[in-house]
Amino acid sequence: MFSAICQDGIVARALANDLFNLDLINPRDFTTDNYRRIDDKTFGGGAGMVMKLEPLELALASIKCKYQQKGLKKTKVVYLSPQGKKTDQAVINQLSLYDGVTFVCGRYEGIDERFIQRNVDLELSIGDFVVSGGELPTMLLIDAVVRQLPGAMNSYESVINDSFMNGLLDCPHYTIPRDYNGDKVPEVLFSGNHEQIRKWRLQQSLWRTYQRRPELLASKQLTKEESRLLDEILSRNKVEGK
Ligand code: SAM
């Protein structure tokens, strides 16, 4: 599954340029029975299988051994779970500070609870819905962390201006044509005045966040300039009945 991010795009390029390292570990390689069984029936009866504790613990021990050999000290074990803390940009920023993160991907009904209790530092969810396995959620998290690494993107500026990076949503973006059957790109973007363009973008970000994610604004300490720009666009749009 991980070829989806390892063969194309920003993560693949970062991997090729050694900006980070990705080890894919198959817990099946740590089974001890002839059938290499990774799952078994759930105790207490009922539908669905559960991932077994022992192969996961052996796999984790092998990862910890690698961390030690490489001298990686600040590490974390994350279990992807719909029951975990909902992932946001702050969580991604935190993850990017670790030397190594082990993402444990569940399948079936999930993994034996004792593995979680014994080994997992943090449970993370990608949202209040259930997918079939932890691999896709893990790939999302890896992409979100890696694109922030210095050198991963052609332009670091576009990373720091992305939604959530400064607690706001990003401003709208436009490209050619300038006029699409009368639907025109805002004039200020052609002014050549960088300060005016910066202010327009900041104001649009504030307005979008106010409209779409007011709770983000409520938890952000606005600068004097941001408060002024927001007040200005609020009263202008009130007059225009928006
Ligand atoms: N029975 C589990 C529950 O209801 O909490 C769901 C199991 S799910 C079918 C199988 C695996 O997919 C989980 O162990 C987890 O690793 C992953 N998964 C599913 N939804 C997820 C989500 N929203 N966020 C992160 N991981 C998820």
Write up this protein.
The protein is α/β, with parallel strands linked by helices. It folds into two domains: 3-146, 3-Layer(aba) Sandwich (Alpha/beta knot); 161-239, Trp Operon Repressor, Chain A, CATH 1.10.1270.20. Helix content is 42%, strand content 13%. It contains ten helices and seven strands. It has helices spanning 3-6, 9-16, 53-70, 89-95, 113-119, 135-146, 156-160, 194-212, 214-218, 224-239; strands at 39-41, 49-51, 75-86, 100-104, 122-125, 179-180, 183-184. Strands 4-3-5 form a three-stranded parallel sheet. A two-stranded antiparallel ribbon has the order 1-2. β6 (179-180) and β7 form a beta hairpin. α3 (53-70) packs parallel to α5 and α8 (194-212) packs across α10 (224-239). It is elongated and about 70 Å long. The relative contact order is 0.11. The protein binds S-adenosylmethionine. The site of S-adenosylmethionine has 19 residues, from β3.
Topology summary:
Elements: H1 3-6, H2 9-16, E1 39-41, E2 49-51, H3 53-70, E3 75-86, H4 89-95, E4 100-104, H5 113-119, E5 122-125, H6 135-146, H7 156-160, E6 179-180, E7 183-184, H8 194-212, H9 214-218, H10 224-239
Parallel strand pairs: 3-4, 3-5
Antiparallel strand pairs: 1-2, 6-7
The chain binds S-adenosylmethionine.
Structural class: alpha/beta
CATH class of the largest domain: Alpha Beta
How many β-strands, per DSSP?
Answer: 7
Q: Which strand order do you get reading across the main beta sheet?
A: 4-3-5
Q: What is the overall shape?
A: elongated
Q: What is the straight-line distance between the termini? A: 46 Å
Number of helices: 10
Quaternary class: single chain
Question: What low-confidence regions span 5 or more consecutive residues with pLDDT below 50?
Answer: none
Number of domains: 2
Helix/strand order: HHEEHEHEHEHHEEHHH
Q: What would you give as the CATH superfamily of the largest domain?
A: SPOUT methyltransferase, trefoil knot domain
The CATH architecture of the largest domain is 3-Layer(aba) Sandwich
Average pLDDT number: 96
